[in-house]
Amino acid sequence: MGDSSDYHRVYAGWKADPEGFWAEQAEAIDWFSQWDSVFDADQGVYGRWFAGATCNTCHNAVDRHVAAGHGDRPAIIHDSPVTGTKRTISYAELREEVQALAAVLRDLGVGKGDRVMIYMPMVPEAVAAMLASGRLGAIHSVVFGGFAGHELATRIDDCRPKVIVTASCGIEPNRIVEYMPLIAHGLEEAHFTPDHCVVLQRPEHLCVPVEGRDVDYREAVDAHKRAGTMVDCEPVDATDPLYILYTSGTTGQPKGVVRDNGGHMVALKWSMDAIYDIRPGEVFWAASDVGWVVGHSYIVYAPLLHGATTLMFEGKPVGTPDAGAFWRVIEEHKVAALFTAPTAFRAIKKEDPRGELIGDYDVSGLRTLFLAGERADPDTIRWAEKVLGVPVIDHWWQTETGWTIAGNPVGLGRLPVKIGSPTVPMPGYDVQVLDDEGHPVERGTLGNIVVKLPLPPSCLPTLWNADERFRAAYLDEFPGYYKTADAGFIDEDGYVFIMARTDDIINVAGHRLSTGGMEEVIGGHPDVAECAVIGIADDLKGQLPAGFLILNAGVEKSEAEVEKEVVRLVREEIGPVAAFKIAVTVKRLPKTRSGKILRGVMQKIADGQDFRMPATIDDPAILEEIGAALKARGVGAFARETA
Ligand code: COA
Ligand code: AMP
Predict the structure, then answer these.
(1) Site to substitute for ligand 1 among 171, 172, 174, most atoms within 8 A of C-beta
(2) Is residue 465 part of a domain?
(3) pLDDT digits (tens, 9 = 90+) for 4-15
(4) What ligand is nearest to the CA atom of residue 451?
(5) Predicted confidence (pLDDT) at residue 55 exceeds the cutoff of 70
(6) Which GO terms describe its cellular component (predicted)?
(7) Measured between alpha carbons, how far apart are the two ends of the chain, in Å?
(8) Which of 24, 86, 234, 573 is surrounded by the most beta carbons within 10 Å?
(9) Ligand 1 pocket: which of 577, 580, 582 to mutate (most atoms <8 Å of CB)?
């Protein structure tokens, strides 16, 4: 395809000499000691990057910039319409905060290799906690604030944190989210008990500390600031974990994605120039949450490693106060690039279909809009392009990779956009499409999208304490390849198209959720004999979960009552972010003769799509019953029909 981008040369250069390519990019990072090998194929499950090197991520994200004379440069701008506050924190101030918090954690016994759980809203102290953990060589695990007690418990038991850093509350537009009752629920359910909680008291809701367990964040940090306590950046192996981020798997047990220190820094630093076209000192805004991978990589680590200014927005695209919030932030803070999920733009478009509110603001400083996290639908892309007047760049990645698998590298020179495709594989990724038997398919043919091993720097080397699960979940099905669990195709120009997940994961408002996890919770309701959860298409959130319940014989409550309880149970156990509001009681579930629930067919019925009757179906009449139940409720395609 004819274009002036440097992409093809750079990608070919990587392919010809992967180790040389990454060694060159690694020069942008400060190392305490050099690696023995850029890639050691004999270490780890499929090899390890920068084996033998030592480094520290906090040093590269913070101290290095101060030492280079950029201490006055803004590191974080916190814009919080939900509290009506704005704060700018310079690199020098960030170093002071991180150093003092590292001292607090050290006082509580945290050292190299220990885990620190972080359960916080979108405040700069959450970033400080991540960096302070890294400064000590500890391993953080951030849990998204929209997850509730049960999700906390499974994570606590898996990573066994010494300390939890948290806040008294988060703030949603319609309510204050008190964290202490959620933590209490998590700790009650978990078998493991952390020693301490460091609690940031927020004026919107003060919590009562637990005697002997809780430490006041601000008091303890300020005491170390006054004392001028120094905490050096602990040298760690490049291959040591920086963090564990749990993500939905095919069961209720989330997968602990491990991120290392060295490779992670190298890939993220490269991406800021090559993919996002951002220069140090510019303002980069990832409108996500620190609890998600987009937040880890592009609210926290990449912009700071790059010496850019990261914008932290504690608000929503709509309702805080209106659908012009994004435009205000872009103007006020001179945002050069915005990165968010398509659902945010669908929400804005729904409230302000003609994009009239943008007329009140000067957004001319914005160069690019990046979208990821879910499929970017053509309508949203075109609308955003028209309203903002800047290129809209879709890119595809996963919690597991931590950065783009396929994208359009604006910094290398933008490639022609094909709407519906996140464009082309980035250097480091040899993306292929295989059929179910593992044979390559023709260009343009749908199949399993895989990445030839080894995965590039920043991608997960394994799952936390679970090498075997890592192999089973990602590597065994297609030997020699990483299974992305996304289905799609590559066209004749090498453009990648992502069409659907091949497992039970659904994507709700850009949030990755496991229907299997929801089924486990619903199955725990005493009146539910059996259930199936599917994701049905939704104009705003992309997908919404819908649960089908079969009740036990002899249940005295009404169906409506049990359905209400089930909705409440999912909210209390998994959290409001599951957005589980549709529960429908049915008499039977469609199954194959071997007893497998036909979720895919149910989803097609709910979405009003054509489907082929599975040859192995036990009783085809059940499909009609499912359709009738959905119709009676006006759910999915039936809602659109009746609208
Ligand atoms: N803490 C507590 N509760 C939270 C939360 C948090 N951090 N984040 C979301 N929730 C709650 C919401 O308040 C909502 O509760 P409700 O059922 O009482 O209304 C529920 O979880 C569902 O949240 P969500 O699906 O996000 O819906 P929403 O109506 O609040 O917002 C969007 C919809 C589209 C505006 C919002 O999802 C959004 O901005 N998404 C795009 C950006 C993004 O975060 N992407 C993620 C990865 S890039
Ligand atoms: P997460 O791990 O939360 O980032 O979710 C990763 C999953 O989201 C991917 O496996 C895809 O199914 C989906 N996804 C992310 N980005 C895109 C995109 N640009 N286009 C289509 N699907 C995407």
Answers:
(1) 172
(2) no
(3) 899 999 999 999
(4) 2
(5) yes
(6) intracellular organelle lumen
(7) 44
(8) 573
(9) 577
The token pair that represents 427 in the structure block: 């250097």
CA atoms within 13 A on the CB side of 95: 23
Mutate to test the pocket of ligand 1, among 314, 343, 395 (most ligand atoms within 8 A of CB): 343
Q: Which residue in 640, 453, 432 sits closest to 536, CA to CA?
A: 640
Report the mean per-residue pLDDT for the chain. Answer: 96
Question: What residue owns the CA closest to ligand 1's atom 17?
Answer: 576
511 and 441 in one domain?
A: no
Last residue of a domain, one of 428, 452, 476: 452
448 and 511, same domain (yes or no): no
Whether residues 523 and 405 fall in one domain: no
Cα distance between residue 166 and residue 566, in whole Å: 28
* Closest C-alpha to ligand 1, atom 15: 576
Asked whether residue 527 falls in the same domain as residue 427, the answer is: no
Q: Are residues 64 and 145 in the same domain?
A: yes
**In this model, does residue 405 exceed pLDDT 60?**
yes
Q: pLDDT tens digits for 371-389?
A: 999 999 999 999 999 999 9
Measured in whole angstroms, the distance separating CA 175 from the mean position of its chain's CA atoms is 23
Q: Which ligand 2 atom minimizes the distance to the CA of 396?
A: 19
Q: CATH no. for residue 565? A: 3.30.300.30
Q: Which of 433, 452, 471 is the last residue of a domain?
A: 452
pLDDT in tens, 598-637: 999 999 999 999 988 888 999 999 999 999 999 999 988 8
Residue ranges making up the domain that contains 542: 506-642
- Residue 577 CA to ligand 1 center (angstroms) comes to 6
Residues 304 and 427 in one domain: yes
- For residue 454, say if its preceding peptide bond is cis, omega within 30 degrees of 0: yes
Two tokens at 456? 């590039």
- pLDDT score for 382: 97
Instruction: Indicate whether 561 belongs to any domain.
Output: yes
Tokens read off for 573: 């156990």
Q: Which atom of ligand 1 is nearest to the CA of 343?
A: 34
Distance of alpha carbon 216 from alpha carbon 622, whole angstroms: 57
Average pLDDT over residues 422-447: 98
Examine the domain organization and report whether 448 and 513 are in the same domain.
no
pLDDT at position 3 over 80: no
Q: Which backbone phi and psi does 232 adopt, to 5 degrees?
A: -70, 160
Residue 616 has which token pair?
């192995």
Give the pLDDT of residue 636.
85
Closest ligand to C-alpha of residue 175 is: 1
What's the pLDDT at 249? 77
Pocket of ligand 1 (CB under 6 A): 145-146, 170, 172, 177, 287-289, 292, 294, 316-318, 340-341, 343-344, 347, 373, 508-511, 541, 576-577, 579
Q: What is the pLDDT of residue 344?
A: 98
> Does some domain include residue 481?
no
CA distance 80 to 123: 9
Predicted confidence (pLDDT) at residue 643 exceeds the cutoff of 60? no
Q: Which ligand is nearest to the CA of 343?
A: 1
Which residue minimizes the CA distance to atom 21 of ligand 2? 375
CATH number for the domain including 188? 3.40.50.12780
Domain count, the chain: 2
| Separation of CA 386 and ligand 2 centre (Å) | 24
Q: Is residue 374 part of a domain?
A: no
Predicted TM-score (pTM) of this structure: 0.96
158, 9: one domain? yes
